[in-house]
Amino acid sequence: MLEQRIQRQFFDSADLKYQAAEALSRPIADAAQALLGSLTGGGKVLVCGNGGSAADAQHFAAEFVGRFERERPGLAAIALTTDSSILTAIANDYAYEQVYAKQVQALGQPGDVLIAISTSGNSANVLAAVRAAHERELTVIALTGRGGGALATALADTDVHICVPHERTARIQEVHLLTLHCLCDAVDHQLLGEQDPA
Ligand SMILES: O=C(CO)[C@@H](O)[C@H](O)[C@H](O)[C@H](O)COP(=O)(O)O
Ligand SMILES: [Zn+2]
């Protein structure tokens, strides 16, 4: 019984990935171009999200700054989810809603990219980060699900929206992680040329 339930999770996740391959390949390619344009122009990538999406933000920054599958110089990326002193000071002195926006205001430069991750598209601190990014002239790559929530309407025409066509947070997160790996692969491919990973 339990094994069947577990197998169903695998099948559901795999089904969604098949569906999403068609729907998301274009916006993911657009996001890769936005990242490349920023990095080659001396820009950097800021990444934020809550809960599992905070883990995704850190996972992505580690693969940019360290490496993905191939050796290359580190790429500039900062997860805004990691410094407990910054996070607690901003939450305590201002509001939890400001924990990412204040960091975007402090660290973001025109031409940088903000990757904003929210499965619902409705996390107030992620929305505030997007508004701060626009004020600082950053391009936003939004990873969402469930239609994109409030984030969908907060984006500018020049931003990229990668919206997973599903309602369940866990399934959406699984596609977000695949999307972030696709972005690492695409950026490495564009920077380093053709070569299959070992
Ligand atoms: O990982 C999970 C659920 O799978 C949770 O930690 C989840 O990320 C948290 O509930 C987040 O606060 C949800 O925020 P969001 O994706 O709606 O922006
Ligand atoms: Zn989770």
Topology summary:
Layout: H1 2-40, E1 45-49, H2 52-65, E2 77-79, H3 84-93, H4 101-107, E3 113-117, H5 124-135, E4 139-145, H6 149-154, E5 160-164, H7 169-192
Parallel strand pairs: 1-2, 1-3, 3-4, 4-5
Helix pairs in contact: 1-7, 2-7, 4-5
Bound molecules: D-altro-hept-2-ulose 7-phosphate and zinc ion.
Pathway: Carbohydrate biosynthesis; D-glycero-D-manno-heptose 7-phosphate biosynthesis; D-glycero-alpha-D-manno-heptose 7-phosphate and D-glycero-beta-D-manno-heptose 7-phosphate from sedoheptulose 7-phosphate: step 1/1
Main location: cytoplasm
Binding site for Zn(2+): 59, 63, 173, 181
Major sheet strand order: 2-1-3-4-5
Q: Would you report the number of β strands? A: 5
The set of bound ligands, ions and cofactors reads: D-altro-hept-2-ulose 7-phosphate, zinc ion
Mean pLDDT: 97
Query: Which fold name is given in CATH as the topology?
Result: Rossmann fold
Poorly predicted sequence stretches spanning 5 or more consecutive residues = none
Span between N and C termini? Answer: 38 Å
Shape: globular
Q: Return the string of H and E elements.
A: HEHEHHEHEHEH
Biggest β-sheet strands, sense, barrel: 5 strands, parallel
Domain module count: 1
Number of helices: 7
Beta-strand share of residues: 5-15%
Q: Helix proportion of residues, in percent?
A: 55-70%
Q: Give the CATH class.
A: Alpha Beta
What features would you describe in this structure?
It is found in: Cytoplasm. By secondary structure, the protein is an alpha/beta fold. 57% of the residues lie in helices and 13% in strands. The chain has helices at residues 2-40, 52-65, 84-93, 101-107, 124-135, 149-154, 169-192; strands at 45-49, 77-79, 113-117, 139-145, 160-164. It has a 5-stranded parallel β-sheet with strand order 2-1-3-4-5, sandwiched between helices. The radius of gyration is 17 Å and the shape is globular. The mean pLDDT is 97. Bound molecules: D-altro-hept-2-ulose 7-phosphate (I22) and zinc ion (ZN).
